[in-house]
Design goal:
The protein is α+β, with helices and mostly antiparallel strands. The protein has 10 helices and 5 strands. The protein is 48% helix and 22% strand. The radius of gyration is 30 Å and the shape is elongated.
């Protein structure tokens, strides 16, 4: 109840009827402000359909300025704030905010929190994937030096994905490849990102990626080009309270290695 209690306080202060009154520019509120708030609430409640007929006699359409001042200035107390009279006050405050009653406000709050949590997971997953792609591009720029430690914050040390990166990159570094970035000759772009599966300890993300990479063999004019647009799948896991990439499906993984092997 405590979080709901505080949320009602926040919603009241930002409600249009309060924000557009003299109270909107007053801080902190004093006794006279709570008198004004009491009148605003009374005026609004008298118009609400929820407070017609028997419901009007059960709850009433007013809240005293003393009750409102106590509500805003007192900390939550289980005994005080769970008696019937106070619950009726919360009902009226929620009706003032546009809800049917306190229970409806609680349901709305939970649904909003779930929506925000879902959006937060999406943003968090996007951040991991974008940071991986950015780091991967940086990783190529160190070639022929192999700097796997760049992925320490993004990929689990024991992950199969990290082992595959190590295998194909070691071969490329042994061939003395360097990435050309002058005049933006090498670049990448992520066109789309969608969460396709969510579990408490795993999020699966699908991306559309374009990679345009130009490599040369160090101290030679030998050149290799990677130019691909494909769909990739990232498996992001939670292990020991830490979220990182566990695996990745890339249909063109190791493409450059294969091209080099084919060259006579």
């Amino acid at each position: 109840m405590k979080s709901i209690y505080n949320l009602i306080k926040e919603e009241l202060k930002t409600s249009p009827a309060v924000r557009n009154s003299i109270l909107g520019n007053s801080n902190p509120w004093k006794r006279s402000h709570y008198i004004i708030l009491s009148e605003i609430i009374k005026d609004e409640l008298s118009k609400r359909e929820e407070l017609q007929n028997e419901r009007k006699f059960e709850l009433g359409t007013s809240i005293s300025h003393i009750t409102l001042q106590r509500f805003f200035e007192s900390d939550y107390d289980y005994k005080t704030h769970n008696d019937l009279r106070f619950l009726k006050t919360l009902d009226k405050l929620c009706i003032f905010l546009g809800f049917k009653d306190l229970n409806t406000f609680v349901t709305y709050t939970k649904e909003r929190e779930n929506f925000e949590e879902s959006n937060s997971e999406k943003e968090f997953s996007e951040e991991i994937v974008y940071n991986y792609c950015k780091t991967n591009f940086e990783f190529f720029q160190y070639f022929p030096e192999l700097k796997l430690e760049l992925f320490d914050d993004l990929i689990f040390a024991e992950a199969p994905f990290r082992e595959r990166i190590k295998n194909y990159s070691t071969e490329l570094c042994e061939k003395r490849l360097k990435l050309l970035t002058k005049n933006n000759r090498s670049n990448f772009e992520i066109f789309d990102l969608d969460i396709i599966s969510e579990k408490p300890d795993e999020i699966v993300v699908k991306t559309q990626e374009f990679w345009n990479l130009v490599f040369i063999v160090e101290d030679t004019d030998e050149e290799y080009l990677v130019n691909e647009l494909n769909t990739q799948i990232y498996f992001i896991k939670k292990i020991n309270k830490e979220w990182k990439i566990w695996d990745n499906y890339n249909p063109n993984s190791g493409l450059l290695n294969n091209e080099i092997e084919k060259k006579p």
